[in-house]
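About this split. The held-out portion is used to measure sequence recovery: a designer receives only the structure tokens and must propose an amino acid at every position. Recovery is the fraction of positions where the proposal matches the reference. Here is one held-out target exactly as it appears in the evaluation file.
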């Protein structure tokens, strides 16, 4: 199956791999995956709240009854990929070292604070995250950390974990199942939506795209959006190169960062969803070019995106 599909819910990808594709796209509506072997399976990511994660686990039951989830990989440290961990706390939970740092920095308590702010950032956060319930979530962090690459044997199915970060976040794990020609990319790939460079550097994300394009894997399960192909990886790569070039030129010209974000015309990328992420992406380029620029905190970054999409 090398073609893109718009199916949602549980999507079979051959005998060993399944994708869990969020019914609606957008902020926080993340995907997950399941790799099955003899007598056990690997879950790739949990979801943004307990209700969503439980609904997914219930739908996976026909598969996991015979092959219980023994291992979980959190692809990275954004909450929409791990806040449901407490429902699979019996498993070995694995993440890249950088992802642990992100998880410690922003947990459910920080999201409750952000979405409760009386400010443009808070208003914007409530608009995009209001569908999620962060109450009652106990942060369950991974109990196994890896650096670089590691290989898992899930009941006879070989699974390769590769940390391609820092890029989207401080640690970004892609999950490659060679025998199924499938790769679960976490948020290194957004299908039909704008990538957001929370961390960078851009060069690491471009290298991650090149690594994905070089893999013997035609089926791409993105962190957000429908199951897709390498064409989506090429589009992400093109967007990142375009934005870096555009922001770099304005930085060199001495333009303030938000003026640059407002001035950039996205052209063929204008139709990608969540285009306001450009504000964060331009900030990240500016900080790469001038490391003395202070980083913005969560409310600062969401405030910039609120401004760019006219929420102020
Ligand atoms: Zn995500």
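Reference sequence for scoring:
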């Amino acid at each position: 199956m090398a073609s893109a599909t718009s199916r949602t819910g549980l999507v079979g990808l051959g005998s060993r791999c399944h994708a869990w594709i969020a019914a609606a796209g957008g902020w926080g509506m993340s995907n997950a995956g399941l790799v099955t072997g003899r007598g056990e399976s690997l879950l790739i990511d949990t979801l943004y709240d307990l209700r969503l994660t439980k609904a997914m686990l219930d739908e996976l039951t026909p598969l996991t009854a015979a092959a219980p989830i023994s291992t979980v990989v959190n692809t990275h440290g954004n909450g929409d990929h791990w806040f449901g961990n407490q429902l699979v706390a019996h498993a070995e939970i694995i993440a890249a070292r950088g992802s642990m740092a992100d998880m410690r920095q922003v947990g459910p308590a920080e999201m409750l604070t952000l979405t409760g702010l009386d400010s443009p950032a808070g208003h914007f956060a409530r608009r995009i995250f209001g569908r999620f319930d962060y109450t009652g979530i106990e942060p369950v962090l991974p109990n196994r950390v890896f650096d670089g690459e590691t290989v898992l044997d899930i009941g006879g199915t070989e699974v390769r974990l590769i940390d391609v970060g820092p890029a989207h976040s401080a640690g970004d794990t892609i999950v490659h199942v060679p025998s199924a020609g499938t790769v679960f990319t976490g948020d290194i790939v957004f299908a039909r939506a704008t990538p957001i460079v929370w961390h960078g550097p851009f060069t690491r994300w471009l290298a991650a795209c090149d690594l994905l394009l070089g893999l013997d894997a035609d089926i791409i399960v993105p962190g957000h959006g429908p199951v897709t192909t390498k064409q989506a990886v090429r589009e992400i790569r093109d967007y990142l190169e375009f934005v870096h070039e555009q922001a770099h030129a304005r930085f060199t010209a001495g333009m303030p960062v938000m003026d640059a974000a407002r001035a950039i015309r996205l052209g063929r990328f204008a139709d990608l969803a969540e285009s306001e992420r450009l504000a964060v992406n331009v900030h990240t380029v500016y900080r790469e070019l001038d490391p003395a620029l202070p980083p913005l905190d969560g409310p600062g970054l969401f405030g910039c995106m609120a401004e760019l999409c006219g929420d102020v």
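Annotator remark: The pocket of zinc ion is lined by residues 30, 78, 80-81, 187, 223-224 (CB under 6 Å).
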